[in-house]
Each structure stands twice: as structure tokens, then as C-alpha cells.
Amino acid sequence: DTGVSQDPRHKITKRGQNVTFRCDPISEHNRLYWYRQTLGQGPEFLTYFQNEAQLEKSRLLSDRFSAERPKGSFSTLEIQRTEQGDSAMYLCASSRDGGGSDEAFFGQGTRLTVV
Amino acid sequence: EDKVVQSPLSLVVHEGDTVTLNCSYEVTNFRSLLWYKQEKKAPTFLFMLTSSGIEKKSGRLSSILDKKELFSILNITATQTGDSAVYLCGAKRGGATNKLIFGTGTLLAVQP
């Protein structure tokens, strides 16, 4: 495992459809983050998992968004009833707990386009 | 409210120039500051800074943190066209969250 893996890389969907993205973190990393990035902006925090526990959700994460990390390994982010404003790059990052070296490494992202 | 501000927003230089990118932050329970380079895809990690005054260096890139004045700089010497990218600064909160709060980034364009 050489890095954080996200799938799919690109997704085009019609407004109102549901979409699900997957993130596979670096294998020994117990922390997992989801971010959203729109053009010309830095990544915005969405949610954070430590192992399987979802410890924080941003106010940006409306009730149409849900994230899971059922076994503390891979994570999924689902968006229900997509809207055009959901179009963005969805980035996943992972890091290791403790040891003072907890830099986060990002995946390649899933670019969502809602038409 | 936590915030990270980067300046300049964009910068155009010629190969061989030296550039300095700025990042100021106001973050509750600040833990560390991270710099990333983003070309068309995912941000790639450059530096993590936790202590004031200690320069981190990697090749032509270097960075330093001032926790008293709440800012960091990223220096790139002898710039090359391959340095063209968006440079993101993120401040990490400590505690249970450990989330990174990012600035909008500095878009650097290095012309031949």
C-alpha cells in the first residue's frame, strides 16, 4: 500500500441522484478525514474518524451527507439527492495517531459533477 | 472562528527567482502547521512545523513557524517551472479532532 486510494476518480450524476465514494487509507493509519474542495479554495473539513468512531462532523455536512467507517479501515461518503452545489472535489486523507508525526496524507480525490 | 489566511493569492515569477509565501493563522488549541503542494490532483505533503524558530528544509524549499506572531513562511529558492502549483497552508487543531483548517492557497506560476 503506497498511499491513500479513492474511488471513483470522477463521477458525473444527475441532480437528485445518490452517489457514494470510497476511501482506502494507508493501512496503519487509524485517523481518516474527508474534505471538500471547490475551485480556487482550500480544502474544507467535512468529517473525521478515529478508527471506526466518527468524532466530528462539520456544519457543512448537511443531513444529505453521511459517512461511515464500519471496520476502522476503508470509509464511504454518501450524498443523497445531489444538488448542483455539491459539485466539488472530495478528498480523503489519513494519518497515524501518536508519535508526534501525524501529518495527513491525501488521496487523489473524487471529482463530482452534478448536472 | 478558526481561520487561516495565505498571501499572496497568486504570484508569477521567472525561473531562478526566490519566492516567499505567507500563512497566518488563528486556530483554537493550535497543534501544528502543515504545508502542501497541490498540482492538478491531491495535495502532497511538504512540511509539518510544531516549534517556533526551527527551520525545516528540503532541497530548495524551506519553512519556519513563529508561534508568537502566529504565522509561517515557505521559501522556494532558484524556482523551476516544476514548482508551479497551488501551495496550501493548513493549521491543525489539537484535542479529539485533529482537523486541518486550510487557507485558500497561493497559486505560484514559474515562467521559463
Can you characterise this structure?
- The complex is a heterodimer of chains A (115) and B (112).
- Chain A is mainly beta and 115 residues long.
- Chain A is 0% helix and 49% strand.
- Chain A is built from no helices and eleven strands.
- Chain A has strands at residues 5-7, 10-13, 19-24, 31-37, 44-50, 53-57, 65-68, 75-79, 88-95, 105-106, 110-114.
- In chain A, strands 2, 4, 5, 6, 9, 10 and 11 form a seven-stranded mixed beta sheet that branches.
- The radius of gyration of chain B is 14 Å and the shape is globular.
- In chain B, strands 2, 4, 5, 9, 10 and 11 form a six-stranded mixed beta sheet that branches.
- Chain B is mostly beta strands.
- Chain B starts with a strand and ends with a strand.
- Chain B has strands spanning 3-7, 10-14, 19-26, 30-38, 44-49, 56-58, 61-66, 71-76, 85-93, 100-102, 106-111.
- Classes of the chains: A mainly beta (115), B mainly beta (112).
Tally of extended strands of chain B?
11
As a whole number of angstroms, the C-alpha radius of gyration of chain A is 14 Å
First-last Cα distance of chain A: 34 Å
Content of β-strand of chain B: over 45%
Q: What are the secondary-structure elements of chain B, in order, as H or E?
A: EEEEEEEEEEE
Helix content of chain A: under 10%
Q: What's the number of extended β-strand segments of chain A?
A: 11
Category from helices, strands and their pairing of chain B: mainly beta
Overall structural class of chain A, as computed from helix and strand content, comes to mainly beta
Mean pLDDT of chain B: 94
User: How far apart, in Å, are the first and last alpha carbons of chain B?
Assistant: 41 Å
Tell me the series of helices and strands of chain A, N- to C-terminal: EEEEEEEEEEE
Largest sheet of chain A, if any?
Answer: 7 strands, mixed
